[in-house]
């Protein structure tokens, strides 16, 4: 049983009640009063202290809540800054690869998309126009995939797409759709006749595939597309026993 014998006890109980009030435990304050057995004599000053503490605690709580909200917004912005490539708006490399690993067992296809003659664009028209070209590619890729697909920037002018659970016909259709969209949208950039195009290497996930193997395969097909004249896609890895399909647009 609590008891009050001195001013020291009053100070202790006052501090306890103030703390309870700050924590919003007004109900607990009255319980403590009752437990002292002398609450009638103390209820006035202690209740006054609790009310004042509560009045102080409310704005402090509001300020603290606003601080928490501000911090959460800042953290979310920082996460977005790290997660997405700031120039193109697609996923940054590491944030692209991790979900691909998680979805790998579901099957799908990997596209490696590389801007054709990009160094020449930079050298001729400047890096600002080059950045616009990369931004156009990123926007076009995002526009031409499903919500369940992933788009990332994995190199300077190289992008990657992961399409979950797609068949051969959809792979070919989507690749041609992306190729033609970029060629159409990239004819003129910032008033310059750029005629931007991309080459695409594609690999499909099969039983026994690994992420490293799929990237290697798509990269080999990308170089085949480059060597065959660019502005096309190559799909059909022999090591996975898929049908050889080369789509060329000249």
Question: Can you walk me through this structure?
Answer:
- It is a single chain.
- By secondary structure, the protein is of the alpha+beta class.
- It has two domains: 7-82; 93-248, Alpha-Beta Plaits, CATH 3.30.70.270.
- It has eight helices and eight strands.
- The protein has helices at residues 7-22, 26-36, 39-83, 93-103, 118-125, 127-143, 168-185, 211-227, and strands spanning 108-115, 150-153, 158-164, 188-189, 192-193, 198-204, 232-235, 245-248.
- The chain has a six-stranded mixed beta sheet, with helices on both faces. A two-stranded antiparallel ribbon has the order 4-5.
- Residues 237-250 have low confidence and may be disordered.
Key descriptive features of the protein:
250 residues; alpha+beta; Alpha-Beta Plaits; 2 domains; 6-stranded mixed beta sheet; two-stranded antiparallel sheet; 8 helices; 8 strands; 57% helix; 15% strand; extended; disordered C terminus
Quick gist of this model?
This protein has 250 residues and is α+β, with helices and mostly antiparallel strands. It has eight helices and eight strands. The strands form two sheets. The chain has a six-stranded mixed sheet, sandwiched between helices. Strands 4-5 form a two-stranded antiparallel ribbon.
The number of distinct β-strands equals 8
CATH domain class of the largest domain = Alpha Beta
CATH superfamily placement of the largest domain? Reverse transcriptase/Diguanylate cyclase domain
Q: At CATH's second level, what is the architecture of the largest domain?
A: 2-Layer Sandwich
Radius of gyration: 32 Å
Count of helical segments? Answer: 8
Instruction: Based on Cα principal axes, name the global outline.
Output: extended
Biggest sheet record: 6 strands, mixed
Which range best describes the helical content: under 10%, 10-25%, 25-40%, 40-55%, 55-70% or over 70%? 55-70%
Secondary-structure element series: HHHHEHHEEHEEEHEE
Q: Estimate what percentage of residues fall within beta strands.
A: 15-25%
Average pLDDT figure: 79
The spatial strand order of the largest sheet comes to 2-3-1-6-7-8
CATH topology of the largest domain: Alpha-Beta Plaits
